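I had to read the description of the data format several times before I understood it. In essence, backbone conformation is discretised, so a fold becomes a row of integers matching the chain in length. I therefore recommend that a typical entry be quoted early in the introduction. For illustration, here is how one protein appears when written out as sequence plus structure tokens.

***
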Amino acid sequence: MAAATHTAGSASDRALRKGAGVVDRSETGKLALTGAQAKELLNGQVSNDVEALEAGAGCYATLLTNKGKMLGDLRVLDTGTELLLLVERIALQALFDQLRRGAIGWQAELHKRTVQQGLLSVIGPRARELTGAGDLPATEHANGPGSMGGAGVLRVVTDVGIDLVCAAEDTERVRDALLEAGAVAVDEAAAEVLRVERGRPRYGLDTDETTIPQEAGLNDRAVSFTKGCYVGQETVARLHWRGKPNRHLRGLRLSGPARTGEPLRLGEREVGRVASVVVSPVFGPIALAIVRREAGVGDTLVVGDGSVTAQVVELPFG
């Protein structure tokens, strides 16, 4: 995969860092759980404490195998009428299958929403203003109903702005209303630069079915160590209380262009592979990678054939 890039001073860069940029992410996987036992059901399937949620709140969680490896990650939003689950499309089927099997015998119903709903990410310091989300708490995943362009929307607080979930047929007019209000249309590649700068891993790029949440630095955000049992809990808890992961998510400052999947070597040993790669207008070429723990912060790694090097840094960048 080639590096995502956008130029300092470009319209996209100004919008994302000083105004508001709009990215259409309607392809995001979407499921909904309803019913009296929806929270209890989901609580036994994912790593965070869903039962503690109140209407208008949400959390981030991981979906794990019995051995604690990630099948995906998801945002869980308690809208007051249902649990809306937002997940990378690559992990949607695994989540659907696990919940469908798990729902047998429970007072809970699973609904597909991916095609039926659109999702627009509004990113930047003006996102709350332009989406009318000033009444929402600043807490990530806080959510509430609203209106945009005459269409009903669910406003969701993110780490970089506000997401708007709407009926699929309303997506275009919601987007047009945002542009009329002063937002700028940007592509996914521009938004990816901000994600990598902030050190937020993306399932399917930086994490996969071989990853344990702690390796990706997700324990604080995605794992509860006080809730009841869930799939994969034993491995995750044992590693947290008794051990140290053999790998860690790190940032890489690159000396030149690199591609996703290229090996990283410390001396003669391969210690990981390049994951997300971007060219930041602030930091230059950077990447994320899960590397073995012997590759410490400050070490210089060889990328691919050796024409490019990578300095290991803490996240977030800067």
